Amino acid sequence: MAEHTPETPIEHGTSRVKRGMAEMLKGGVIMDVVTADQAKIAEDAGAVAVMALERVPADIRAQGGVSRMSDPDMIDGIIEAVSIPVMAKARIGHFAEAQVLQSLGVDYIDESEVLTPADYTHHIDKWAFTVPFVCGATNLGEALRRITEGAGMIRSKGEAGTGDVSNAVTHMRTIRGELNRLHGMAEDELYLAAKELQAPYELVKEVAAAGKLPVVLFTAGGIATPADAAMMMQLGAEGVFVGSGIFKSGNPAQRAEAIVKATTFFDDPDVVAKVSRGLGEAMVGLNVDEIPQPHRLSERGW
Amino acid sequence: MTRVGAAPTIGVLALQGDVREHLAALRSLGADPISVRRPAELAACDGLVVPGGESTTMIKLATIFDLLEPLREAVRGGLPAFGTCAGMIMLADRIEDGTVGQETIGGLHITVRRNAFGRQVDSFEEDLHVDGLADPVRAVFIRAPWVEAVDDDVEVLARVEAGPAAGRIVAVRQGPLMATSFHPEVGSDDRVHGMFVDLVRSS
């Protein structure tokens, strides 16, 4: 090979590197884990990444109180235990928790409504970090605002810790419907669309032209069965987060693997049927409608 | 065998990973790309791309869905194949830092070190000179592997040029097999895919 001098030095934490990391997770399942043992089970079941947290959403919901970033020792233990990417959650707006998680070497930070928000006005300025962020969204405007703040990946919020998939469905359908509407708009309609979406015009214009988000879109919140995962993928999700659904069920290893298979073969009902057999009990569900309004997690963030 | 002049059918292993980006790059080069999740789909291919993603997930799904042996047979039988990042791991004969007992399709006579550059905060991009291309490519490395060792029949196409890993092998070719540690499918530069499509056309 010829000798040469590189024109530009190496660059870390660019948009391409951050968004690209999420591209590599597509078609995969990211599983909530609270111990190193669970992380191993998730990796063995074929998870593309694990989300390290102290309590799964179902327990956060049951136990109440303020929910925060996990203990660094616990996150270290999970990073040690597996070779797949490890994600962890910071509270909305809590940039110091995010700084800690970056220094621990987590691969993706979830600025998550599942934890108690630290700032009810501002989200974290995610451009200030080398590590990429995933954020929840219930609609297109919310997704675009998070991307404007530097999120490298978006997920539907759903209603975490319930096993009730209905909110995730609503969020995915809403985002997809709004993307389609934007894609069909005349250029001179985009100024008003940007105002209504409360998102920057340049980003709205880019998304309108592409007909899709500039980052990967996963689904999260209430996914508990292989059929749930298959439905969300058919609705346009590019991958699946499963929170309480696995380790709050009767047979976590088997259910985890079944959801992985159903996510890959989401459009093949024979496979989904086969993997749905003999899984034992799914997590005990909680209907979103029965949760009093102040306790609905998906309404956190804006 | 490819008919002269016809668009070659190039499969992208679609068990998990950034399949869509590879399909788009191949389509823009005039190939006829298809997603491969089943042995019958593999049988229709003149070439195969193994995408970026999570290698432990891909190998698990390939095993469960009875695709691993057909993949091995196809590669042994001379099917041109191109792996990026996790795809490079999948095509390597030997892995360092894999999960316990992690298997591969194999075929490339190389030893690959998984997650060699470190965690996601260590992921980077740089201008990389690739043998056979006039101008450098903007190479995106994401929790990437590198090639620890190559046998004599493997041609080294690129090495990291700056930073602590300078000199590490990140692109190789061996007969009809190619692999890169980086992701030529991320971004709009399709020249590396062009090299592979040429390889398929000439096979």
UniProtKB/TrEMBL annotation, chain A:
<dbReference type="InterPro" id="IPR013785">
    <property type="entry name" value="Aldolase_TIM"/>
</dbReference>
<feature type="domain" description="PdxS/SNZ N-terminal">
    <location>
        <begin position="15"/>
        <end position="220"/>
    </location>
</feature>
<keyword id="KW-0456">Lyase</keyword>
<feature type="binding site">
    <location>
        <position position="173"/>
    </location>
    <ligand>
        <name>D-glyceraldehyde 3-phosphate</name>
    </ligand>
</feature>
<feature type="binding site">
    <location>
        <position position="161"/>
    </location>
    <ligand>
        <name>D-ribose 5-phosphate</name>
    </ligand>
</feature>
<comment type="similarity">
    <text>Belongs to the PdxS/SNZ family.</text>
</comment>
<dbReference type="InterPro" id="IPR033755">
    <property type="entry name" value="PdxS/SNZ_N"/>
</dbReference>
<feature type="binding site">
    <location>
        <position position="32"/>
    </location>
    <ligand>
        <name>D-ribose 5-phosphate</name>
    </ligand>
</feature>
<feature type="binding site">
    <location>
        <begin position="243"/>
        <end position="244"/>
    </location>
    <ligand>
        <name>D-ribose 5-phosphate</name>
    </ligand>
</feature>
<protein>
    <recommendedName>
        <fullName>Pyridoxal 5'-phosphate synthase subunit PdxS</fullName>
        <ecNumber>4.3.3.6</ecNumber>
    </recommendedName>
</protein>
<feature type="active site" description="Schiff-base intermediate with D-ribose 5-phosphate">
    <location>
        <position position="89"/>
    </location>
</feature>
<comment type="function">
    <text>Catalyzes the formation of pyridoxal 5'-phosphate from ribose 5-phosphate (RBP), glyceraldehyde 3-phosphate (G3P) and ammonia. The ammonia is provided by the PdxT subunit. Can also use ribulose 5-phosphate and dihydroxyacetone phosphate as substrates, resulting from enzyme-catalyzed isomerization of RBP and G3P, respectively.</text>
</comment>
<dbReference type="InterPro" id="IPR001852">
    <property type="entry name" value="PdxS/SNZ"/>
</dbReference>
<dbReference type="Pfam" id="PF01680">
    <property type="entry name" value="SOR_SNZ"/>
</dbReference>
<comment type="pathway">
    <text>Cofactor biosynthesis; pyridoxal 5'-phosphate biosynthesis.</text>
</comment>
<keyword id="KW-0704">Schiff base</keyword>
<dbReference type="GO" id="GO:0016829">
    <property type="term" value="F:lyase activity"/>
</dbReference>
<keyword id="KW-0663">Pyridoxal phosphate</keyword>
<comment type="subunit">
    <text>In the presence of PdxT, forms a dodecamer of heterodimers.</text>
</comment>
<dbReference type="InterPro" id="IPR011060">
    <property type="entry name" value="RibuloseP-bd_barrel"/>
</dbReference>
<feature type="binding site">
    <location>
        <position position="222"/>
    </location>
    <ligand>
        <name>D-ribose 5-phosphate</name>
    </ligand>
</feature>
